[in-house]
Amino acid sequence: MGIANLYVPAIVNMGFSIPYLLSETTVSGAAVTAVDFSGLDLLPGTLNDPDKVEFTLNILLVNPIAAGANYSIFVNGDYVAGNYYNQELNAVGAAAGAMRSNNANFAYVSASSSSNYKAFFARDRAGRFRCFAEGAYDSAGSTALKLRYTVKSATITKITDIRVSCDTASGIGIGSVITLGVARSRQVV
Amino acid sequence: MKVLKVNVAAGTSEVIDDGLPEPTPDPNYEKQMKDGRLDFAKLKAKLSALGISPAEVE
C-alpha cells in the first residue's frame, strides 16, 4: 500500500483564506472499502475550530466493481447510514431527476469506471454536519452530472474524523486519490 | 471492513480491518434513479404532439 500523505503545518498561523492541502492519499496495492481521515480535531490553530473551518475533498474514485457503486461520507465514527439524509439531482442528456435518500451517499461511480468529485463539508452554525458534492459519472457511454447534499440528522460539536466509504466491498480501487484540504477560514459568516 | 486509515495530524497511515461487516449495496438504487427522471426533450415532443407549444410552459 503506497500512500502519499502530506501535512504542512508551517502556514497554519498565516490566517489562511485560500485552499490549503492537509492530506493527499492514493490507494495502491489493493482496493479498500473505506478511507478514514482522523485527527482533524488535533490540527493546530483555527484549522480545528468547528465554527471557522470548511473542508474540501477532491476525489478521483476508481470503481473496480462490475456494478455501479455509491459512496458515503460519515463523520465522527457514526457509520449508521440511517442517521444521515441526502438530496440529489441527476442530469443525463435532456433528462433530469431528483431523489432524497435516508443514507450518507455523496458520490456515485458507474461500473468499472472512474469519476472525479469535489465536495465541501463543515459543521454549520446550528451544529449539523453538512456536505455538498458535485461530480460526473458515465451513463451508457455519455457524461452524466450528479449533485448531492448530505447531512447528519444529529448535531455535532466538532469534526474529529471523516470516512469515505463504498457501499460495495473493496469498492475504492487502486489508483483512487483522495485529497483533503481546507477551503477557507470562516472568520465572518 | 478493509479501511485505509489516515491520521492527518500525525501524518501516518495504515490499512486495517475495523471489524465492521462489509457493506451491502442497495439493489434498487439505479432503478429508483432512472424512475425519477423526466426527459424534457421527450416532454416537449409530447406537448407538441398534443398541440401545445413548449414555449407556453417554459
**Unreliable residue runs of chain A:** 1-16
State the separation between the terminal residues of chain B, measured CA to CA.
Answer: 49 Å
What composes the largest sheet of chain B?
A: 2 strands, antiparallel
Indicate the CATH architecture of chain A. Answer: Sandwich
CATH class of chain A: Mainly Beta
- Strand percentage of chain A: over 45%
Largest interface: A-B, 46 and 33 residues
> What does the radius of gyration of chain B come to?
24 Å
State the helical fraction of chain B: 25-40%
Shape designation of chain B: elongated
Low-confidence stretches of chain B: none
- Specify the helix fraction band of chain A: under 10%
Label the overall shape of chain A: globular
Order of helices and strands of chain A: EEEEEEEEEEEE
Count of alpha and pi helical runs of chain A: 0
Instruction: Supply Rg of chain A.
Output: 16 Å
Sheet with the most strands: spatial strand order of chain B = 1-2
Mean pLDDT of chain A: 87
Tell me what you see in this structure:
The complex is a heterodimer of chains A (189) and B (58). In chain A, 0% of the residues lie in helices and 53% in strands. By secondary structure, chain A is mostly beta strands. In chain A, a hairpin with a 4-residue loop joins strand 8 (114-123) and strand 9. Chain A has a single domain (18-185), classed as Sandwich (Jelly Rolls), CATH 2.60.120. The model of chain A is unreliable at 1-16 (pLDDT under 50). The radius of gyration of chain A is 16 Å and the shape is globular. In chain A, strands 1-12-3-8-9-10-5-6 form an 8-stranded antiparallel sheet, with no helix packed on it. Chain A has a 4-stranded antiparallel sheet with strand order 2-11-4-7, with no helix packed on it. With 58 residues, chain B is α+β, with helices and mostly antiparallel strands. Chain B contains 3 helices and 3 strands; from the N terminus they run E-E-H-E-H-H. Chain B has helices at residues 29-35, 40-49, 54-57; strands spanning 2-7, 12-17, 37-39. A two-stranded antiparallel sheet of chain B has the order 1-2. In chain B, a hairpin with a 4-residue loop joins strand 1 and strand 2 (12-17). Chain B starts with a strand and ends with a helix. The model of chain B has no long low-confidence stretch (mean pLDDT 89). The A-B interface holds A 1, 3, 5-7, 22-23, 25, 27, 30-40, 42-43, 67-70, 79, 90, 92-99, 103, 163, 165-170, 172, 180 and B 1-13, 15, 18, 20, 22-26, 29-30, 32-34, 36-42. Strand 2 of chain A pairs parallel with strand 1 (2-7) of chain B, so a sheet runs across the interface.
